[in-house]
Amino acid sequence: MITTVTLNPSLDYFVSVRDFRVGVTNRTTSELILPGGKGINVSTVLSNLGIRNRAICITAGFVGQEIIRLLAERGVEVDAITVEQGCSRLNLKLRDEDDKGAGEGTEINGMGPEIPAEKLELLMEKLDKLGEDDTLVLAGTVPGSLPSTIYSDILERISGKGVRIVVDATKELLLDTLKYHPFLIKPNHHELGEFFGVKLEDRMEEEKESGYKTVISLMRRLQQKGAENILCSLAKDGAVLLTEKGEVFVSPAPDGKVVNAVGSGDSMVAGFLAGCAESDDPEYALKLGLAAGSASAFVKGLAGGEEIRRLMK
Q: CA-CA distance, 86 to 212, in Å (whole number)?
């Protein structure tokens, strides 16, 4: 079974306005409230694709209660650890639209509650029960009240149990987990370049015809540090998969109009894991991951199973 962990979940409040201005009253043209956090997004899309999973999250206050309610409403199996003090994050996703409905997005994300030591230990006890038939997804940021080594601490604790590990995080949070040989990591091209002090955008455009040589070279260097499979998303240019056998698969993204990119990377992780559950073909998993990521980018919120399967075809 797949278990996702979201240490700092949120309610994401998506609003669109026209001609946004600072210092005056702005009126929304559309609104949407969804449970958020990278692990929660993975769980939601997995559920939409018919893959059973469990979402462990740490919640607090009335926002936390609404996160749990909305997830249950969407058919996600929730295992919530409740903090008595504080409140879960409320994140504002603001889009300034023009008359054609296009526009730039701005995000203002909350902090979340302080997590006491006993709640962290409760999380660890839940993860102690995982074994060889389980996949654990660690995704997203870490609250300031938890140690920055929390992901590697978790992997140290369950080391040797045969749990398949997936990590979708940035900088040291990800790099510190590589010694535990995660089954999958999913940086985007910006994050991949940051690991090695390289700006990839210009090189990607130059190397498109030759197959993104620099991207693949950096992925191989990252693999040497311990990751088994690496899935690197390239935004509008698709994705590259480097398998544990050293195979490289490159696929373009499906055509479509990007409506909202929030959660598209998490959807890609979910689609890839669903593909692994349905087939032993890594290229199939890559394409289902791309279909899921793109389908979510083409809608407000996260894509449903039918939308993903339709795009996969």
A: 46
- The residues annotated as belonging to the active site are 266
- Between CA 182 and CA 200 the distance in angstroms is 24
- From residue 302, alpha-carbon distances to 11, 42, 55, 175, 288 in Å are 14, 10, 16, 28, 15
| DSSP secondary structure string for all residues of 82-129 | EESSS--EEEEEEEEE-TTS-EEEEEE--------HHHHHHHHHHHTT
Q: How far apart are CA 81 and CA 59, in angstroms?
A: 6
Per-residue pLDDT tens for 141-169? 888 889 889 999 999 999 999 999 999 98
Cα-based distances in Å from 7 to 87, 192, 217:
13, 23, 32
Q: What is the pLDDT of residues 40-76, one digit of tens each?
A: 999 999 999 999 999 999 999 999 999 999 999 988 9
Q: What is the pTM of this model?
A: 0.91
Cα–chain center distance at 172: 17
Give 233's strand partners.
188, 239
CA distances to 147, 176, 183, 214, 305 from 143, rounded to whole Å, are 8, 17, 25, 33, 31
3-state secondary structure of 214: helix
According to DSSP, the β-strands at 164-168 and 184-185 are parallel
